[in-house]
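User: Please fill in residues for this 144-position structure.
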């Protein structure tokens, strides 16, 4: 029995990496890249005198500054997420500002609130629901 050496076609070996590169480029060009985080920036000024800020559970950062106008509140939000665009919102109920920090999985909302008058200012790190005891849902008072 004779031994025969079998060799592949050199052209077929060169085509495989080229095809893989073309497929990768096509996926990136068509927008199928769901692995990267996206970012939305909001900057709103509301005509309201805020005396209380309540933060609902979620993930992100909170910065409160008391250097603004006594009759306005400035709310800056940065939403970072993967996948579909989340629903991020805040609400003003009378003199209370309610910040909803829950925008779903793979998502964080960071708030920077500037309100007038004396306040208990600071920076807090928001944690996901179920992460243990914390300040979630408790109001920060002394803004008015």
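Assistant: Residues filled in for all 144 positions:
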């Amino acid at each position: 029995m004779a031994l025969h050496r079998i060799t592949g076609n050199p052209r077929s070996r060169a085509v495989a990496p080229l095809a893989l590169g073309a497929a990768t480029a096509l996926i990136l060009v068509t927008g199928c890249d769901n692995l990267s985080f996206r970012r939305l920036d909001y900057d709103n000024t509301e005509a309201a005198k805020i005396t209380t800020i309540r933060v609902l559970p979620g993930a992100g950062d909170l910065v409160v500054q008391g250097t603004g106008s006594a009759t306005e509140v400035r709310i800056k939000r940065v939403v970072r997420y993967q996948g579909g665009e989340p629903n991020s919102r805040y609400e003003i109920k009378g003199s209370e500002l309610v910040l909803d920090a829950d925008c779903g999985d793979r998502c964080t909302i960071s708030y920077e609130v500037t309100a007038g008058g004396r306040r208990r200012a600071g920076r807090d790190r928001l944690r996901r629901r179920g992460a243990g005891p914390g300040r979630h849902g408790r109001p920060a008072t002394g803004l008015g």
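For context: The first strand starts at residue 38 and ends at 46.
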